[in-house]
Specification:
The complex is a heterotrimer of chains A (about 250), B (about 300) and C (about 290). Chain B is mainly alpha-helical and about 300 residues long. Chain B has helices spanning about 1-40, 40-45, 45-50, 65-95, 100-115, 120-135, 145-170, 175-180, 185-195, 200-215, 220-225, 245-250, 260-285, 295; strands at about 55, 60-65. Chain B is globular. The model of chain B is unreliable at about 290-295 (pLDDT under 50). Chain C has a single domain (about 50, about 60-285), classed as MetI-like fold, CATH 1.10.3720.10. Chain C has a two-stranded antiparallel sheet with strand order 1-2. Classes of the chains: A alpha/beta (about 250), B mainly alpha (about 300), C mainly alpha (about 290).
């Protein structure tokens, strides 16, 4: 399997001393779902936010190491961060719909990039909604305010919004934590479809979700990468005791 | 396309940044100008004369500013005697006693008073308040410090009410609940728990009210009689006085540019600037967090 | 459980509550009384002629059109200078400024500007705009003076409106590849607009009613014609009311009240518009 992203000895510390990453080295294969799991404070969200340089918005004390996306180091100061964020999209834990219509939410990313052609924008709207398994539910009300959708629909809209930008990598940070089981199932099913075309990085909200969805899995504990392997292998035969303890629920 | 986007963004960011600094620039500019035109007064008028008790610019160099200072003080003091109890009392009423619907009506009403131009209040002061005071208290004229104090009290009350009410509102409900649970009545809770907890905000409210009062020009000019007489006794409140602000407003139109009188008026302006700066910096250093703080402070 | 008997504390509370209710009434009733009184005394003077004609007989008859027009021009002039500058400064404070000494200094400066007595703005305007920059007694000089005075109100209200927009919107916009300014322009500013507008209107309302800053910078008592350039002096409602009530002998009282009524109506009208904008925006909020 080709590696889409290679994390090379990444260390990170925030200005206020919290949540650090300690010497993380990790390969993320393309066209697969890689799951980052572990108890709170493990650094999983921090790692995600490094991958699209969203960490630039917070005060950092030290960052060292490299992150290679298709061979190029995205932590290099000369990186075009705007283009990076279009290539690497993110879905957040709470569905945050922009105060626009459904259509407006979806075309927002393309408009930022300067896309004005109506045909392109309309195509993007339908394509991304289909990919997020939301098209049938909202096709008749694309000009309604996005805030009118249910929680589960809003989150799928956020996923579609990222897809409209035509990214290569999709980061999801506990995307189903507030959703009911049916909506959760829809999102998980969409991810399984999407991985054929995209590289997916998921922070699950439970070990069970991790086990359900992972092609590859990495266990994070207090800023350290403890173990990572093929999904089936990690959850059935974890090699390190701490991993096993966490999976079995002995701490968490 | 990306390139022009970032070029435009750069210019806009620069403009926004400069705008951000503008407040500092203006304060410095104002201070500088007051100094430039006001300091010559210290040179042209001997200090002894400047702080004498005779303000009579028309008749030779009589530039004693003490009567003006005492005029401002007595009117401000009188105004605060009225505004503080009524202001805080109304704030307490609105925040702790009045039902919700009443508060929704009172709040905009008080804001309304704060928005009335002071010249209108001065106008009513001349036509209604002063004659009334003259008759009521059997005075030779109704245009006195008392009239000024009453009007200014009324002008300062909305400022005090707004900020104090926000401060009381910001006190966590749990404080009150805790007191009630221990058997205190609502009345006791207000005075022993809620108000002390809102202490810094209420203090800010009062200081800003004082600032507003010291700086008021038109209403005082219209009702205080404009007699630059030293006001030291308690009974002075029943006599006409002249405030610093009224002096500037009344006489600036008649001075020759560059004359000593001109410089002295600027000097008085400088004094007012320094006083208001002191009051406002003190008020802002009293730590007070409230959602609507900025709005209230500047209304 | 109902209290069966009156205790001392109950009596104190009842008395106290009554006292405070009285205090609040005494504070609030004069507001209504003032407005009602001015309406009662001034309404008879209001007529189409009063509002659209030039004054005659040394202001003792005729209309107050030039004062109304003048106040309108001054308000417009104030808006031209203070609104763009104020909103831009607010954007800087809300979206760009870091939490350092410079930002704190800016905030202190704003609080200071807010507290400067209005007559000192008049002095400053005289010294800088009228004399030093040689604009003369003009709408321009008066508007500039009023603008600096109005700046802190607009900056504070706008900053608050901008801060009220949830941070999550900005994060999402950035994560989709937006720049800071794009985020402000497309999401933050539109959402903050009602709040900004309210602040602007309240600021301009205050500028419209102020007399002291325009005393030496732009106001004139009697002008035979309406002003036709920013370098002309102008009449204005607050100044007009001041002069006719203090310096014109045998001034008909009705006209004085009528002028006061027009001024109050102008100011109150703006207040009402601002309040309506504020409540309608609150209802339509999408977060």
């Amino acid at each position: 399997m080709v590696d889409k992203i290679i994390v090379d000895h990444l260390s990170l510390q925030y200005a206020d001393g919290t949540e650090s990453l300690r010497d993380i080295t990790l390969n993320i294969p393309a066209n697969a779902v890689t799951v980052l799991f572990g108890p709170a404070g493990g650094g999983k969200s921090s790692l995600l936010r490094c991958l699209n340089r969203l960490n630039d918005l917070t005060e950092l004390r030290t960052v060292s190491g490299k992150i290679l996306l298709d061979g190029e180091n995205i932590l290099d100061p000369k990186t075009d961060v705007i283009a990076l964020r279009r290539r690497v999209g993110m879905v957040f834990a709470r569905p945050v719909v922009l105060p626009l219509t459904i259509r407006g939410n979806l075309t927002y990313g393309l408009e930022l990039a300067g896309e004005k052609r109506k045909s392109r924008l309309e195509d993007a709207v339908e394509r991304s909604l289909r990919l997020a398994a939301l098209w049938d539910e909202v096709r008749t009300r694309l000009d309604d305010p996005a805030i009118a959708l249910s929680g589960g629909q809003q989150q799928r809209l956020c996923l579609a919004r990222v897809l409209a930008n035509q990214p290569q990598v999709i980061l999801l940070d506990e995307p189903t934590s507030g959703l009911d089981p049916i909506s959760t199932g829809k999102v998980e099913a969409a991810l399984q479809e999407l991985k054929k075309e995209y590289t997916i990085l998921l922070v699950p909200h439970s070990v069970q979700q991790a086990a359900r969805t992972a092609d590859f899995a990495a266990f994070f504990l207090q800023g350290e990468l403890v173990e990572w392997a093929n999904g089936k292998d990690l959850f059935t035969h974890p090699k390190i005791k701490r991993t096993e303890d966490y999976i079995e629920g002995r701490f968490g | 396309m990306d390139k022009s986007l970032s070029w435009r963004e750069y210019i806009i960011t620069r403009l926004v940044r400069v705008s951000g600094y503008s407040a500092i620039i203006f304060v410095i500019l104002i201070f500088f100008f007051l100094l430039r035109e006001g300091l010559p007064a210290l040179v042209e008028v001997p200090l002894k004369d400047l702080f004498s008790t005779r303000w009579y610019p028309i008749e030779g160099n009589n530039f004693g500013i003490l009567p003006l200072i005492t005029g401002s003080i007595i009117v401000t003091f009188g105004a605060m005697l009225i505004a503080i109890p009524f202001g805080i009392g109304t704030a307490v009423f609105m925040s702790e006693i009045a039902p919700r619907w009443m508060r929704e009506i009172l709040k905009p009403l008080v804001e309304l008073l704060g928005g009335l131009p002071s010249v209108v209040l001065g106008f009513l002061g001349i036509l209604v308040l002063s004659p009334y005071l003259r008759v009521l208290l059997n005075l030779p004229t109704g245009l006195t410090a008392l009239a000024g104090a009453l009007l200014l009290g009324g002008i300062a009350v909305p400022t005090i009410v707004s900020i104090a009410e926000d401060a009381l509102d910001a006190v966590p409900y749990s404080y009150r609940e805790g007191a009630w649970a221990m058997g205190a009545t609502r009345w006791q809770t207000i005075w022993r728990v809620t108000l002390p907890a809102a202490r810094s905000g209420v203090l800010t409210a009062v200081m800003l009210g004082i600032g507003r009062t010291i700086g008021e020009t038109m209403a005082v000019m219209m009702v205080t009689g404009n007699a630059p007489v030293l006001a030291l006794a308690l009974t002075s409140i029943f006599h006409p006085v002249r405030t610093m602000t009224a002096t500037i407003a009344a006489e600036m139109g008649e001075v020759a540019n560059g004359s000593t009188h001109y410089h002295v008026l600027f000097f008085i302006g400088l004094v007012l600037f320094v006083i208001s700066m002191a009051v406002n910096v003190a008020a802002s250093s009293v730590v007070f967090k409230s959602k609507k703080r900025a709005e209230r402070v500047l209304s | 459980m109902k209290k069966a008997s009156f205790s001392n504390r109950d009596i104190v509370q009842r008395a106290g509550f009554s006292l405070l209710t009285l205090v609040a009434l005494v504070t609030v009733i004069p507001i209504l009384a003032v407005i009602a009184y001015v309406i009662k005394e001034g309404a008879p003077a209001i007529s189409w002629e009063f509002l659209t004609a030039m004054p005659r007989d040394g202001m003792r008859a005729g209309g107050i059109l030039p004062a109304i027009v003048g106040t309108f021009y001054l308000t417009l002039g104030t808006a031209v200078f203070s609104v763009p500058l104020g909103i831009a400064a607010a954007i800087y404070l809300a979206e760009y400024a870091r939490d350092n000494w410079l930002t704190r200094l800016i905030r202190i400066a704003i609080i200071n500007l807010a507290g400067i007595p209005s007559v000192v703005y008049g002095l400053f305007g005289l010294g800088l705009f009228v004399l030093f920059l040689k604009f003369g007694t003009s709408i321009l000089a008066a508007s500039l003076s009023l603008s600096i005075m109005t700046l802190p109100v607009i900056i504070s209200a706008s900053e608050e409106a901008l801060r009220a927009v949830p941070q999550a919107f900005r994060t999402v916009s950035i994560s989709l590849g937006g720049t800071r300014w794009q985020t402000i322009r497309k999401i933050v500013l539109p959402q903050a607009l009602p709040g900004i507008l309210t602040g602007v209107i309240l600021g301009l309302e205050r500028a419209a009613g102020e007399t002291a800053p325009i005393l030496f910078t732009g106001a004139a008592f009697f002008l035979p014609r309406l002003p036709n350039s920013p370098l002309d002096a102008t009449m204005a409602l607050p100044y007009h009311l001041f002069v006719i009530s203090t310096q014109v002998p045998e001034m008909p009282i009705q006209i004085q009240y009528g002028t006061a009524l027009v001024l109050i109506a102008f100011v109150l009208g703006m207040n009402i518009i601002a309040t309506v904008i504020r409540s309608r925006a609150r209802a339509k909020r999408q977060w």
